[in-house]
Amino acid sequence: MRGAAVDPDCPQPVAPRVALLLSPGALPVGPAERVAERPGRPSAAPVAGIQPSDMSSETSSDDERAGLPRTSDVPAFDVPLPEQLPATGVIADVLAGQLAVHDRLRAGGIRYAAILSGGASKYLARFLLGSREPVDAADLAAAAATPAVNRSRLLAAAESLLRDGAVVFVDPSPDGILGRFLAEDLASRDDAEVLFGSAASAGSLGILGGLYERGVDLDWAQVPAGDGWRVRLPGHPLHGTRCWVELPGSTQPAELAPATASSESREPGVPSDATDWLCAVLRELLHAETEIGPDDDYFDVGGNSIIAVQLVERVEETFGFRPKLLDVYERPTVADFAELLRAGSRPAADEASPHGLPPITRTDELVMSPGQERMWFHHQLVPDTTLYNYPVVNVLRGPIDVDAVKGTFEDFAERHEPLRYNLVEADGMPAVRVRPALGEFFRVVDVSGESDRVGIARELIARAAVRPFDLARDPLVRVLVVTLAPDTHVLQVVCHHCVTDGQTPGILAREIPVLYAARQEGRTAELEPLAIRYRDYARWHRGLLDSGALDHELDYWVHTLRDAPKLRLPTDFPRPPRKTFAGELAPFTVPATLLAAARTVAKRESVSLFVVLLAAFYLLLARRSGQRDLVIGTPTTGRTRRELDGLIGFFNSTVALRANLSGPATLGDLLERVRAIVLGALENQEIPFERVVHALDDQRDLSRTPVFDVLYVHQDLTSTGAANRLGTGAANRLGGGAANPFGGGETEFFDLEHSIHNAFGGLPPGTAKFDLSLITYDRSDGHDMLACFEYSTELFTQRTAAGFAAAYLEILTEVVVASARDRSIEELVVATPSPASTGASEYAVALDIPMDRPRGSAAAGYSPGAVRERLDTVPGDADVFAAWVALLSWYSGSDEVTVGLPTGVARLDLADEPAGAELRERAAAALAAPVGPVGAEAIRFGDFRPEITELALHRPEGDRAVLELAYATELFDESTARQMLTDLIRLLRGLLETPEDPVPDIAVRSIAEAEVTR
């Protein structure tokens, strides 16, 4: 049931529509827009019968004139006007500029609800709206000479648009008269905003940024880049003469052979023994220290979904055909899969798989990868964000050479170019600049002489982890060394996520010891040269997108995710209209015995451990939300080709795993279903997720993340050394018992008692990108598995997050029981949770009731107030409760209402708009059989708890004719509570008098119409 009493001051999280203002004589600012011919441009929708000419056809007392700019003020816009608009001189330049901005914004994905105009620009508006009637040059000149604007008609047109929802009016000129009028006339409206172009915001790029910030969805990949200019610089020709000093007895160093572009460029040579080849490749991919034989099981030796993708790539490269990912699961033994390789054959040219992608070749071109561009743009909107900070911190035991440590990181950055990147704006477009050196990136603090060494180090580490990066100016890697004692140091490395991912710690662990030893010994490190660089990957990936090579993947995702529902998890607090990404961690452990049982299930079902853990997460979400169609996001490494394995950079890809748990299926069926979903996602992971979001064309909701609100990240930290096999949102750690890469001794976690984030490297403290993220760390060495829920503190309390963890362990325990395979999914979903797994919001849906003041912290308790009213009759409890539920639904605009009772919780759904009598029956049933244990619900009935109650309705002992509404004085004024009680009594009377009418109709008569008359 949707109520009318919604707080007008609360911005609604629905993306506004866009109206373009073409002010007469107003020239857009910014660099010249270069737009090619525009075949078949879709027309914009007219405004409620108002034509573009209506904005300028007549004058009134409010009419004002806008002068044309001087010729010297007009830059040349390389945009041909259509032949229907034979303008010349300054007005031609003005129209060309407006046309260029129109096309630039449309190329960025903007769809106009209307185009409002005046003066000569009205003819351009008519053309853009679909008219192809030629305009007489004299009419154009006359309109330009007398560009009057009918202010009242302009306002009427704007108000007509606003009747259908919020609108952003875009005037590309900073002094456009249409924008100025609307900014003044609509200043008091919350659903209208005028966005001007300005030189400071880079013209149309700034407008696109402003629209995106206001919730409008864009397609940045389609924004045309400006032409590049080649400039000859003065210099002197140099001969390639070697000038190094040769020491006596030294040998002339051989010239480095040019790095091969890619192993894919070689003609595949089929090995003579497929089994030996497969054993060797698996050992390499798994970083296994022991031999792998023909009888070994893929999953027993550490195989999983991501390794399967890499294995399939190797098979295609070597044998000339691409097996399915499912083949790896259906033939888990090495010998069986080798038999498939021997039987395989190269497909014909016309049957080539769409996965046969071109090789990565070396290039000197510097471009951002799509993932980097997304983070760059987020940085433009929120420059001080720490959402993409990527901190890893460990204690180093043993002596270290601090100068050599600094030099080691400098050498590492020299080898891996992205660590020296800066992401800048050039001519209004994102661009990459490479620093010659890291610069001021290294800091050493000695606290060994302080009394509270650990406390000081903790503060230093915490501040460094949340210090924002300036992507255009700062080194994007920072290193902090805090000396606690001569042989004890805390090492923190913080990178911006745009130059690193979850593979980085594994590469660090391999290369840092080599570089450090070379630094100490004053020699060149002996590391294999990198065949390609990150810039080569970025250019290759963009080439795939531009060529359409990934269109089949986009089609897969659009088909898979079309009409996916939003997750409706119960929350402790109402969802804010805009996410701030504030969050915390709720750590827990999966016992080693439970983990071993999960591995047994995985092997029995020929699935990976990831699939078992993910299936349990689906069951948890289904149990908590009541939904069966669920979408969980997960990151993948994005490193599907062998030449990418050793590179530093941001390669992560995000995939959305949609599963339907409805129907008569068993747990075994669910595991098979989830396996197929995971494999399908991995087969289609190259397409950037933002392309998928744009193709789905959903209205952007600033209170949620696109497509999914929950994430699962699984980190493989097995003793084989295979790092980050699935899910790369959090980093591997160097420490926790690993060898110190800077000499003798070991590493360990730092200060876990007070800084639990240090155990989960790569998660910036105090943030949560999603409503809820499950993160698991698999060591595969007989230990407990470290895990955590990262949760939004805007939605959940710590107690609720801990309840998620307990519930997850409970469900996982049910899943791994030997007899569970044949249990129905529905039986697992609806199983009654234990008290330990029931958080505060197990059944609580926070209602967004309009308040006089925002919610504070309930931990300190509320101060109660109360208002009373005497009834003419004495209705039953079910009647009063039905009226209370209907009122809460009306006030909050929510169909689902959860109310705390003295003996449990009542949860009623009014989405079907029941009749008054039906609602009374549901209310009576809910009172007779409440669900769940007594919780901490803030809205209650028949039960008053001053420390947590926001609103509570009850009937005082001994006087059933009186209704008392208790309220938190921190949130509500007495007058508000009294009005709420008055509305309740009116609604109660309406339900009793017309029980056969739908509840929304009763509410309209009882509340909304009463509001009009009072």
Automatic annotation (TrEMBL):
Keywords: Phosphopantetheine, Phosphoprotein. It comes from the Bacteria. Residues 30-75 are annotated as: Disordered. Pfam families: Condensation (PF00668), PP-binding (PF00550). Residues 269-345 form the Carrier domain. It comes from Nocardia uniformis. Its cofactor is pantetheine 4'-phosphate. GO terms for molecular function: 2,3-dihydroxybenzoate-serine ligase activity; phosphopantetheine binding. The keyword Nucleotide-binding does not apply. One of its GO terms (cellular component) is enterobactin synthetase complex. One of its GO terms (biological process) is enterobactin biosynthetic process. The keyword Phosphoprotein applies. This is Carrier domain-containing protein.
